[in-house]
């Protein structure tokens, strides 16, 4: 724990370094709001913060910069995410007001929106069908021998399949099969629903329709894999001076399984921010990740996050991720 004065000085150093990317000196801090002590006192406190691992001095004559430990203290001390500025809030409202069409397109565009809001690389993950669960199922008769199977998933995605029967089927029989199918699929993933045999209804014709409907749902390998949508990957080139760092981070982003595992691991550890070595990935030693789940009707439907340098504006990043995840969940619930 840090006393109030050290905490105020550390916070001022982090905020100044985030803003300028230049080592922060005691003379500058003495003129900062919230640090009402002499430059000599500030120098002593900064030296103590350096000894304790919160600050580092790149060069002997330079000011200090935050360490990973310093950033972690700063993030943990935030009372709440920051607030998006009015133009950014309007940008989010306008985006989701017109966001329609296929789910994949919406998620790809959401990743670009989040990247534009933060000036960092953004990631949106849609879980595969092996994890998304079925919210509702309905068979809709279209013709005497044709019905439409409509399945709504926990991700907000709607799956549709056309089923053709060998002979004419009445609406009453389709309705009975629809009810049986809904009871079998509810709360299960499509993969699980297809794998498990449905309970017999007592009517062979109803059971035949249910089995026929389930055979149309066999997912492909692509359906079972999480989909990752990356927006603003090119912004990595602006975030780091070292070309090698940019190359390694971009190579990592190409491996979708690694990205998905990273975001899930951060959330599973109860974090919304992972800084530097906390990510568990050596290529991200100079990066920070801010993540949040997006939910549909209280159920986790996917994950969004941003990836940038440890010198990121954490209050603004947390605000952007929180707002976009909430609005995306709302939009998917509305259908």
What report would you give on this structure?
- By secondary structure, the chain is an alpha+beta fold.
- It has 3 domains: 4-76, Orthogonal Bundle (Arc Repressor Mutant, subunit A), CATH 1.10.10; 86-127 and 226-334, 2-Layer Sandwich (Beta-Lactamase); 134-223, Heat-inducible transcription repressor hrca homolog, domain 3 (Enolase-like, domain 1).
- 47% of the residues lie in helices and 19% in strands.
- The protein contains 14 helices and 10 strands.
- The chain has helices at 4-20, 26-30, 39-51, 68-76, 86-98, 103-118, 171-185, 190-195, 204-215, 221-224, 236-239, 243-253, 256-268, 314-334; strands spanning 55-56, 65-66, 121-126, 134-143, 146-153, 158-164, 227-231, 273-275, 287-296, 299-309.
What fold name goes in the CATH topology slot of the largest domain?
A: Beta-Lactamase
* Element-by-element helix/strand order: HHHEEHHHEEEEHHHHEHHHEEEH
Beta content comes to: 15-25%
Number of strands: 10
CATH architecture of the largest domain: 2-Layer Sandwich
CA radius of gyration: 26 Å
Report low-confidence residues grouped into runs of 5 or more: none
Give me the secondary-structure category: alpha+beta
Tell me the helix content.
Answer: 40-55%
Q: Which outline best applies?
A: elongated
Looking across the biggest beta sheet, what order are the strands in?
Answer: 7-3-10-9-8
CATH superfamily of the largest domain: GAF domain
What is the tally of helical segments? 14
Largest sheet: 5 strands, antiparallel
**Mean pLDDT score:** 88
User: Any idea of the CATH class of the largest domain?
Assistant: Alpha Beta
Q: Distance between the terminal alpha carbons, to the nearest Å?
A: 47 Å
